[in-house]
Each structure stands twice: as C-alpha cells, then as structure tokens.
Amino acid sequence: MNQATLEKMKHLKLHGMHRAFSTTMETGSVSYTNDELIAYLIESEYDDRESIKVERLIITAKFRYRAFIEEITASSSRNIDKNTIGRLSSCDFISQKQNILITGSTGVGKSFIATAIGYKACTMGYKVMYFSINKLFSKLKMAKADGSYFKEIDRIEKQDLIILDDFGLQSLDNLKRQDFMEIIEDRHGKRSTIIASQLPVSAWHEVIAEQTIADAILDRMVHNSLRIDLTGESMRRKKADQKISSE
Fold first, then answer.
1. 156 and 108 share a domain?
2. How far apart, in whole angstroms, are the C-alpha atoms of residue 93 and residue 95?
3. How far are the Cα atoms of 13, 110, 137, 191 from residue 164, in angstroms, in the given order?
C-alpha cells in the first residue's frame, strides 16, 4: 500500500511529499499521529514548491552573479549602516512602490548591493529582472526591429522590481531617452526600480541630455526613492590586495 501511495505521489508530481513520505517509511522510527503526518507531508510539499519557485524567479531575473544581503558590509566609511541594510532586507520598499538610487565611484559595491536586494526580493516571491542598461537599450532596439518591442516593454512593466545597472556610462540619444522615459512612466507609482550609477543624481540631467525629459524622469524617480550614496575605496581592489597579501 505504501509503495502504491508513493507511485501516485510521483505521478501527481508531489515531489516534496514523495521525498518526505519515503524518508518516513525508511526510518520507521519516527511516529506521527494521523494529523501530524498529514501536516508534515503538506509542509514538505509546500517547501519544495516554494524552493522551485524561488529558483525559477532567480533564473528569470538573469543576475550577473549571486549576491546576498548578509554579505553587504556595513561601514561608516562606505556610508551604509546596519539599519539601512535591514530596511533593504525587508523589501518593504517594493510593497510601498518606492525606488532605490545607488550611486558611488567604480568598485564600491553598487552592483553587488543592487543584486543582493534583487536576490532577496526573489526569495520573498517578487518578480525581478536585472539589466545592464546599455544592453537593455540594445535589446529594445532589436525588439523594435523584429516587432516585439511592445511585448518586451509590457514584460518589463509587470515586474515587481527591475534593476538598471551602470546607468550614466554613456549619454542617451533620442531613442534611448524615449525608451527610458517609457519604462519609468509605465512603472511610476505602480512598481519599484533600482538604478545603480557611478554618477551622482545631480549629474543625471546631463546624461539624459534633454531638459524636459530629464525633468520628467527625475521627478518620477527621485521624489519617491531611497538614496544610497556609497563612498570609500574600491571593494574589488581591496579584495585583490587581501588575496595578494595572503599568498
């Protein structure tokens, strides 16, 4: 009877329940009441499905690398403290439809923090997408050529959180300005966006390179945002120096 039950669980794709029931049958020493066994099996199936869901969200997000909130170094020299990290970890900014603007010089950890927030959001069930912004513009340009532009824009709009990394490396031309404005306008007041940039926010007008559109974009982004202005030395250089000294 137990083997038949296991086969039915497998057929119904109740993989978490199947593993839990198999383990229970193999050990034999663990005794459950009927209601405890049912609760255990359901909890195991729930955990298994949640784990699969989170991994699928992480894959779909297309992060460049794995990063975790717990690995962010709180330091006054970096201008980020434990309270800020705690606020980021809760991901309350997503339910509040707030944005996050992360600025700082090369190597101080902007991309790492943005990615860590994105990973945390995925573990909490939020839909996230990560983009290097110049690659995003290239992707949208190709989407216009093959007729999938509006489908792509709609997909971006529906994400609970998008991360736009490396903003400001190049000034925006007219097409990129229009694409950027459309993305920000579609998400304003409805979804959250993280922008990471080497440039201070005060220099973004120059990057957008058109006063009226720059005013519109910054009005939507800045006034409802959490600001993280990172300082200090390059974390990449620091890690490289530590590696050399340990060899």
1. yes
2. 6
3. 37, 11, 11, 14
Which strands sit side by side in the sheet containing 225-229, from one edge to the other? 128-132, 161-167, 192-197, 99-103, 225-229
Inside any domain, residue 152: yes
247 is a domain residue:
no
Could you tell me if residue 246 is inside a domain? Answer: no
Distances (CA, A) of 131 to 8, 42, 203, 208: 42, 37, 21, 18
Among the listed residues 106, 76, 114, the one whose alpha carbon sits nearest the alpha carbon of residue 193: 114
Q: Are residues 80 and 28 in the same domain?
A: no
Per-residue pLDDT of the chain (247 residues; tens, 9 = 90+): 688 888 888 888 888 888 888 888 777 656 777 788 888 888 888 888 888 999 999 999 999 999 999 999 899 999 999 999 999 999 999 999 999 999 999 989 999 999 999 999 999 999 999 999 999 999 999 999 999 999 999 999 999 999 999 999 989 999 999 999 999 999 999 999 999 999 999 999 999 998 999 999 999 999 889 999 999 877 655 554 444 444 4
The pTM of this model reads 0.83
Same domain assignment for residues 55 and 104 = no
User: In Å, how far are 113, 193, 200, 203, 224 from 108, measured between CA atoms?
Assistant: 10, 20, 14, 18, 24
DSSP H helical segments within 12-167, as ranges?
A: 15-27, 34-61, 82-90, 92-95, 110-123, 133-146, 149-158
- Provide the residue range defining the domain that includes 14: 1-60
